[in-house]
Specification:
CATH topology: Growth Hormone, Chain: A
CATH architecture: Up-down Bundle
Radius of gyration: 19 Å
Number of strands: 0
Structural class: mainly alpha
CATH class: Mainly Alpha
C-alpha cells in the first residue's frame, strides 16, 4: 500500500496539538481550580500512569486482530466521551476518575499509530521523523497561541479547547486506511524471549529514567517559570521554542542516523539533557540561559524519541510491533512520566521548585551511565 503521507501527518498534527494545550496549561487550569502542587502532580501522574497498562492491553488486541486503526478510532472516540466529564467534575476524586478513564483510552492510540506509520515506511524507518515533524508543528501552534490567549481570557476555557482538538483527532483517524494484513498466529520469537535480552532491559531502564526526568518539566515548567516572573505569553513562547528546535531536528534526523548511528545519538541525547535540567534548576532567572536550555529539547525529546522508536521497532519485529511500541510508551511516558510527575510534586513541596530539576538531572546522568555501559561502541546504523 502506498504511503499516505498527509493522512498520517494529519493525525500527528492534532494529537500533539492536544499535548501542546494539555502539558503547558493543564497545571494552570488545575491551580485555577484550587488544586495544590502535590495534587497537580498526582493528577498528571495518573494520566501518565495509565500508559503503563492501557497501551499493552490495546497493543495485545491489535497484534492479535491485525486491526490497529480500528483500535485507534475506538480509543479516540471513547477518550472524547470520557474527557467531557471534566465539565461536571467537582472535587479531587471525581477529577481523578475522569482523568483516569479519559487517559485509559487516549493512551491506547499513539503507540498503535506509531506501529502503523512504521509499517507503512517498511525498511525506511529513518524517515519516520519526516512524518512525525507535523506533530511537533501542532504542539508549537497550540503552545504559542494559547499563552497570550490566556492573558486575555480565563484558563477555565481550556477544557473546551481540548475537547475540540480531541474531536479533530478522532476525525483524522478516520482518514488513515487500515492495512489489510491477516492476523499472525505464530511468533518467530516470543515476547518474553525479547525481554530477557540484556540490551533490551538496558534500553527499557534508560527510557524510564529519561522520561522520568521529563515529568517535572511537563507538569511544572509553566508554574516554575511563573514563579520567576515570566508572563504566560513568554512561557508559551518558551514551550514553542523547544518544539521548534525539535522540528528542525526531525527534518535532518534521516541524515543523522546513517551518519552517526542510533546508539551514539542516544548517548549524546542523554548527556546533553542532563545539562538542560541542571541549568534550568540553577539559572531560571536568566532568560538567555532558559532559551538555550529550551533549544536542547531538540536532543532531549527529538533525537531521543526518534532513536528509541527505531530501536524498539528493531527489537520487536513482526507480530510484536504493536506490543513493542506499547511497551515503549508504557515504560517511558507511562511509568517514567508518572514517577517523575509524582516525585516532582513531592520534591516541590518538600525542598522547593529548583529541586525538581536537580532531581531530573540526576536521573538523566544515571541513564547516560547505563547507556555508556551497554550501547557505546556500537552504532547500529542499519537499524
Amino acid at each position: 500500500m502506498p504511503l499516505p503521507y498527509w493522512r498520517l501527518s494529519n493525525f500527528y498534527l492534532f494529537y500533539f496539538a492536544s499535548l501542546g494545550a494539555l502539558l503547558p496549561y493543564w497545571g494552570l487550569y488545575l491551580k485555577d481550580e484550587g488544586y495544590s502542587a502535590l495534587e497537580i502532580g498526582e493528577l498528571m501522574a495518573l494520566v501518565m500512569a495509565t500508559k503503563i497498562i492501557s497501551p499493552n492491553i490495546w497493543g495485545w488486541i491489535a497484534d492479535h486482530t491485525g486491526h490497529k486503526m480500528t483500535i485507534i478510532r475506538t480509543g479516540s472516540l471513547f477518550s472524547i466521551l470520557c474527557f467531557a466529564g471534566v465539565f461536571w467534575a467537582e472535587g479531587y476524586w471525581v477529577m481523578a476518575l475522569v482523568m483516569f478513564s479519559f487517559s485509559f483510552f487516549w493512551n491506547a492510540t499513539l503507540p498503535q499509530f506509531e506501529a502503523v506509520t512504521l509499517n507503512y515506511l517498511h525498511g525506511d524507518s529513518h524517515r519516520y521523523s519526516l512524518i512525525r515533524v507535523w506533530g511537533s508543528i501542532g504542539f508549537i501552534v497550540t503552545a504559542v497561541v494559547l499563552g497570550p490567549l490566556f492573558e486575555w481570557i480565563s484558563v477555565a476555557h481550556l477544557p473546551a479547547i481540548l475537547l475540540g482538538i480531541y474531536i479533530a483527532i478522532f476525525l483524522s483517524s478516520g482518514l488513515v486506511p487500515e492495512q489489510n494484513r491477516e492476523p499472525v498466529h505464530h511468533e518467530h520469537l516470543p515476547l518474553i524471549g525479547v525481554l530477557k535480552q540484556p540490551r533490551v532491559i538496558a534500553l527499557l531502564v534508560v527510557c524510564f529514567l529519561m522520561q522520568a526526568s521529563h515529568g517535572p518539566y511537563y507538569t511544572f515548567f509553566t508554574l516554575y517559570m511563573e514563579g520567576y516572573g515570566y508572563s504566560r505569553t513568554v512561557i508559551g513562547e518558551l514551550w514553542g521554542l523547544g518544539v521548534i528546535a525539535e522540528v528542525l531536528l526531525f527534518m535532518v534526523m534521516h541524515r543523522l542516523v546513517p551518519k552517526f548511528g542510533l546508539e551514539r545519538l542516544l548517548i549524546f541525547a542523554l548527556l546533553i539533557t542532563s545539562l538542560r535540567w541542571l541549568v534550568t534548576a540553577l539559572y531560571a532567572d536568566s532568560l538567555v540561559v532558559i532559551l538555550l536550555a529550551q533549544l536542547i529539547h531538540a536532543a532531549s525529546f527529538g533525537i531521543f524519541h526518534a532513536v528509541t522508536i527505531a530501536m524498539f521497532h528493531h527489537h520487536f519485529p513482526g507480530k510484536l510491533q504493536g506490543r513493542g511500541q506499547a511497551l515503549y510508551s508504557s515504560v517511558s511516558f507511562g511509568a517514567g512520566g508518572a514517577f517523575g510527575s509524582y516525585a516532582g510534586g513531592l520534591s516541590w513541596d518538600q525542598f522547593g521548585p529548583e529541586s525538581i530539576y536537580l532531581f531530573a538531572s540526576l536521573m538523566t546522568i544515571t541513564a547516560y551511565l547505563i547507556a555508556q555501559r551497554w550501547f557505546s561502541g556500537k552504532s547500529n546504523r542499519a537499524q
